[in-house]
Amino acid sequence: VLLLHPFNAYLEQELDRRFRLYRFWETPREEFLRAHAGAVRAVVGNASYGADAALIDALPALEIVASFSVGIDRVDLAKCRDRGIRVTNTPDVLTDDVADLAVGLAIAVLRRIPQADRYVRAGLWKSRGDYTLTTRFSGKRVGIIGLGRIGQAVAKRVEAFDCPVSYHQRTEQRATYPSYTYYPSVVELAANSDVLVVACPLNAQTRHIVSREVMEALGPSGVLINVGRGPHVDEREMVAALADGRLGGAGLDVFEDEPNVPEALLGMDNVVLLPHVGSGTNETRKAMADLVLGNLEAHVLSKPLLTPVV
Ligand code: NDP
Q: Is 229 assigned a catalytic role?
């Protein structure tokens, strides 16, 4: 098993215990591949470190890519299909945490929770007095791009805040969610939302799905929440729209070029910035690790994979 990065200590320890583990970061890439390429039967990556075409091509004995993430945008799925390489991910176990964080970000942006915290820490409450008024979250119209596992969990949560829910994706879910409004166009969804949450997978169709036009439709009092992937949003346009006040605010867990965050965002008071921590709780990361291990063991034992993508 080739682990691409040391992203979870428990997973690394268990992989080491149950398999013959190679740590990709310990040896220069070319040197590692010269020595061990033929021995690698499984690759374990995550949302940031995936199996691209070059890596897959370099591993002639590769049988399975088990990703420690639900999003598999960093795995070359077409290449895996061609080569008969299986691919697994970690759905469901992280859904609640990501949805919690999306709602937390929306409230944090509107109620300016981090900014108010900084105000207290800086001693400004004492020197300047009461903090500025903020904006209510309860009852706001929430639009969701991608009413999948995470999108549905966000919808369920915001319903408890009396927020009307609408959504955009390729298929309307009228029978399952008769009270949610479906918009076949993202621009229309944005125009009818106060808070727009991105929760779809990243692929060729969804790259920059939040375009300048979408952000302008969301408008000067609208808030963009991105818990999907950075490239869902045209980041340059977002920074400009936030700076000009054409977009009201943003709560961002993901960025186009992680861990690089546009410098301009760091000075803005209408944004809340997180370092891609949607699934980052002890509980969920343990469950994700167990799913990766379960998939690898199922594969080795020729049993059905727990969460197959390919
Ligand atoms: P699901 O597959 O359950 O849901 C995805 C939804 O997106 C579906 O309802 C699907 O509907 C919709 N969708 C797919 N293609 C498009 C498209 N072209 N345009 C609009 N909507 C589309 O995935 P999850 O809810 O489990 O996860 C969603 C994403 O969240 C992941 O792929 C991942 O990138 C991201 N994520 C981020 C995390 C973080 O740390 N911030 C953590 C976990 C996940 P339909 O097929 O009808 O279009």
A: yes
